[in-house]
Amino acid sequence: MFTGTGSDVGKSVVAAAFCRIFLQDGYTPAPFKAQNMALNSFATPDGLEIGRAQAVQAEAAGVECHTDMNPLLLKPQSDHTSQVVLNGRPVGTRSASEYFRREGRAELRAAVCAAFDHLAARHNPVVMEGAGSMTELNLRDIDLVNLPMAAHAGADVILVADIDRGGVFASVYGSIALLRPEERRLVKGIIINKFRGDISLFASGIKIIEDLCGIPVLGVIPYYKNIYIEEEDSVALARKSMAAEHGGRVNVAVVLLRHLSNFTDFNVLEHDPRVHLFYTNNTVDIEKADIVILPGTKSTIDDLCELRRNGVADAIRKARRDGATVLGICGGYQMMGREVLDPDGIEGDVERVPGLGLLPVCTTMTASKVTRRVAFTMAESTACDMPEAEMYGYEIHMGVTSAAEGLTAEPLTRLADGTADGCFVDNKCMGTYLHGILDNGVFADFILAPHAAKIEQAARPFDYAAFKNEQYDLLADHVRRNVDMGRIYDILKNNREQAQ
């Protein structure tokens, strides 16, 4: 288990690296995080929902993702409430005080432990990830994801610390010192992450940490800039580009919603050499963009009201009139229609909000959630000059969208079962429920085609799957060079011998 001195210290990426390392070394690894809190999620092959980080780690491990890898997912809906997804299915909305109370905790603990047991029966090793800091003292007795989970699993715990943020000695020593004796015995090593500069200068620092804690430092991982691994935290979003650029690339503006979810939908364009992708709610930048994308959201109505209030709705409509492409995905697709209705109060007290009016559709919010992986092709009305190709994506949404009264709506895509998806007005105005649609090179080429004149280089279509696979290998090599794998394997071997 990789636990942390705090949030955003790099646990998810380190876990992904070890998933790939163990795969390269001939093992059958799988990731596990008992409880994850994230807006970015992913659909498993059987149509259930897990955190995106565990889907990425599964990809690094070379296995299909499964709900056993993340049995408990919390999806924030406001500053105080989250949707609770258990074993891939939503089971209700809870406030923080409701979720963290002791009542009902035993049932959740039993569920996450059972998921781990199922996973461990199929995979070796299981690469576990903790959440936040492993020493949140006020939550210690109700913790489901850190050391109590490690104790259930009999896991070797490795503490990950972020030296880039400063205070690494205090954070490491404090994390260890605050543990109970039985918890401290679980911690077998320390990894210092995100180091900048000459590592040899930190040799004395390693000795100080080891002397203070009595636990070996297994490696110091340098900060990297040229390896790209999907991250799901809002902290990662804050590091992305926030402005348009001048030059020979297509400017793609992703509207920065308050409740933006699944921003990993756009990672492929972020690395496409033909594209400059940025996130913004600046009306001037939106009006100047070549392509405007309305992304998914955890609260369609609240975000739509905000877009109408802050002028972004008008800026998107102006961009469309001026020749920009506008694409809506999931909640963004819902916003592009004539109106969004919520008669049952699924998202709150607002029963009806006018949409942007760019698509001839209306959406009614529903309590049931659609979660599934799909294969699809472009619909007959949109496929004109495109090569025939089967593509893949996934749906995670609430609400039903259909043609507005008295209007007809042409679909954008057609699913393998014949179901129509989305709405297509022309090659510069469309919406879809399909997350991951841009990961398909054929579709990415389709939305870039109207802006081909702006692309200076005749870049070949971008193979995102090959790119991601290469990044996992680069990450694994980076970690191998800077971590003592021999000692890690010795720790795992000793654990196994003691268990026997």
Largest sheet: 6 strands, mixed
Beta fraction: 25-35%
Number of strands: 26
Gyration radius, in Å: 24 Å
Mean pLDDT, as a whole number? 91
Give the proportion of residues in helices. Answer: 25-40%
Strand adjacency order, main sheet: 15-13-16-18-26-25
> Structural class of the helices, strands and pairings?
alpha/beta
End-to-end Cα distance, whole Å, is: 20 Å
General form: globular
Summarize the structure.
With 500 residues, this protein is an alpha/beta fold. It is built from 17 helices and 26 strands.
Q: Would you write up a description of this structure?
A:
- It is built from 17 helices and 26 strands.
- The strands form seven sheets. Strands 15-13-16-18-26-25 form a six-stranded mixed β-sheet.
- Helix 1 (11-24) packs across helix 16 (464-482).
- The protein is globular.
What's the topology here?
Elements: E1 2-4, H1 11-24, E2 30-32, E3 35-37, E4 41-43, E5 49-51, H2 52-61, E6 72-76, E7 81-86, E8 89-95, H3 96-99, H4 105-120, E9 126-128, H5 147-153, E10 157-162, H6 168-177, H7 181-184, E11 187-195, H8 203-213, E12 217-222, H9 234-238, E13 250-255, E14 260-261, H10 267-270, E15 275-280, H11 283-288, E16 291-294, E17 296-297, H12 300-310, H13 312-321, E18 325-329, H14 331-335, E19 339-341, E20 352-354, E21 361-378, E22 391-403, E23 413-415, E24 420-421, E25 423-426, E26 429-432, H15 441-448, H16 464-482, H17 485-499
Parallel strand pairs: 1-10, 2-9, 3-6, 10-11, 11-12, 13-15, 13-16, 16-18, 18-26, 19-21
Antiparallel strand pairs: 4-5, 6-7, 7-8, 14-17, 19-20, 21-22, 21-23, 23-24, 25-26
Helix pairs in contact: 1-2, 1-16, 6-8
